[in-house]
Design goal:
By secondary structure, the chain is of the alpha/beta class. The chain contains 14 helices and 18 strands. The longest helix is centred in the C-terminal third of the chain and has 25 residues. The radius of gyration is 23 Å and the shape is globular.
Length: 451
């Protein structure tokens, strides 16, 4: 019996897919990279933006023929879009066998228990906790990525007016630290030395005490967790996505500065540079507060790479508001930015506001913002030519008989190296020889070379 997973959306969705995959493995299913070979196909969806949802549902529609070719085939629709449209799924997509909304992923075992016997599957399952982690300190089936994706919380307690996440994922629930640290430790010792901690507002993590970490100290908040994860044997790099500016405080900043394994890169969404727009977005911070926190982070971690998200054309955004966004981009000196045009999402607070910025104006503002942020990112990449970096190899490719290694620096910049063929998951030192736009090109560096 085989299963195939198609994932749309963010790293949280990737982690959720891995979690559900573990549960299918625990029932005797083996993964396949070929959808046509699968007995079970899991489509994990995103609904944060309309385009992402349309792409996932279009893929789902194309699976109708696959499903009807065998009565035993099982098509599972999961994730955020599944949560949003779960009441209409069977009418729109009769080929779907099982619906697992984002709020129900923790109950995936029970959902499978109810559904699979009716489809002819009645395999016993291994014991997993509510977060999809097998009991004990090890896991039988490694994930494919060189990076260990580890979910530490679900949901969001904020109510940003443009965001659908609280509606489809619910309020925050925190994973106990002991099980989380056991998972990180097992994955690190198995070879996944880079850890990516995931949560909707990851730095709001505050589990109920007691929550002991190795050494006997309780994990009371995200700062404690970062220190505990960063000091586990086998952990070489720690990353996390996505922190909220509201929870960037002195304890958080100190943990970044004092834990050498935490990567010097932070993706800290700002969304707008205008206090008026931030207020309508319900972001819970001001322009000045964001800039002060960005400056404090850079003082504490010299050379930190700071990236962000922007939304242009939010309801009521004036040209003066947009000028504030452009000026904040320059003042914060971002290393990179993801920039988006606002589009209303049903079920959000902003959907009730008049979408009063025209498409033409949104596109013009987006182009100006991209010109600003991408030019800065290219200049920063160019400034790295001649410097030496530790690179985690993520993939090995061949181009015209030449091996090309694709890796990532601690500052989260892509770096391509031509040379020897280390396996993905290994580290090399490389000197940046050129910058192609925002991407770095490099050459392997002898052990004696200096950074």
């Amino acid at each position: 019996m085989k299963f195939y997973v198609e994932t749309f959306g963010c790293q949280m969705n990737v982690a959720d897919s891995q979690e559900m995959g573990r549960r299918l493995r625990g029932r005797g299913f083996s993964p396949t990279a070929v959808a046509a070979e699968a007995d079970v196909i899991l489509v994990n969806t995103c609904t944060v933006r309309q385009h992402a949802e349309h792409k996932a549902l279009s893929y789902l529609g194309r699976l109708a023929g696959w499903k009807t070719s065998s009565v035993k085939r099982c098509l599972i629709l999961a994730g955020c879009a599944a949560e949003r449209i779960k009441d209409t799924v069977q009418r729109r997509f009769p080929q779907v066998s099982v619906v697992v909304g984002a709020k129900s992923i923790a109950q995936f075992d029970e959902i499978l228990d109810a559904a699979l016997p009716d489809l002819g599957y009645d395999a016993p399952r291994e014991s997993l906790d509510a977060w999809g982690w097998m009991e004990g300190a090890d896991e039988a089936h490694p994930d494919d990525s060189v990076t260990a994706f580890v979910t530490l919380m679900r949901g969001c307690n904020f109510s940003c007016s443009y965001c659908i996440v609280p509606a489809v994922r619910g309020r925050e629930s925190y994973r106990p630290a002991a099980g989380l640290l056991a998972e990180v430790s097992a994955k690190a010792l198995r070879g996944q030395s880079e850890v990516l901690l995931l949560g909707q507002t990851v730095n709001s993590y505050r589990p109920a005490l007691p929550n002991p970490a190795p050494g006997g100290r309780d994990v009371a908040d995200f700062a404690d967790l970062l220190r505990a994860v960063g000091n586990l044997p086998g952990v070489r790099r720690v990353r996390f996505m996505s922190p909220h500016p509201f929870y960037v405080n002195d304890r958080f900043i100190a943990a970044l500065a004092e834990t050498p394994t935490i990567c010097p890169h932070l993706h800290l969404p700002v969304q707008s540079g205008s206090d008026a727009v931030l207020g309508r977005m319900r972001r819970n911070y001001s322009r000045g507060e964001y800039l002060a926190k960005a400056a404090a982070l850079r003082r504490a971690v010299p050379g930190m790479s700071l990236t962000t998200d922007f939304i242009v054309g939010f309801p009521g955004e004036t040209e003066a508001d947009f000028a504030e966004t452009l000026s904040l981009s320059r003042e914060a000196d971002f290393d990179g930015a993801y920039c988006f045009k606002y589009s209303p999402r049903p079920g959000t607070g902003a959907a009730a506001l008049p979408d009063d910025v025209s498409t033409e104006v949104k596109e013009e503002r987006l182009a100006r913002l991209l010109e600003e942020t991408e030019a800065r990112s290219r200049l920063k990449a160019q400034s790295l030519v001649g410097t030496v970096h530790e690179v985690l190899i993520e993939a090995v490719r061949t181009e015209g008989g030449i091996y090309r290694l694709e890796g990532r620096t601690a500052h989260n910049r892509k770096l391509f190296v031509e040379g020897a063929v280390p396996a993905p998951g290994t580290y090399i030192r490389a000197r940046v020889s050129a910058a192609d736009g925002k991407t770095l090109l490099g050459t392997p560096c002898e052990a004696a070379c200096l950074s």
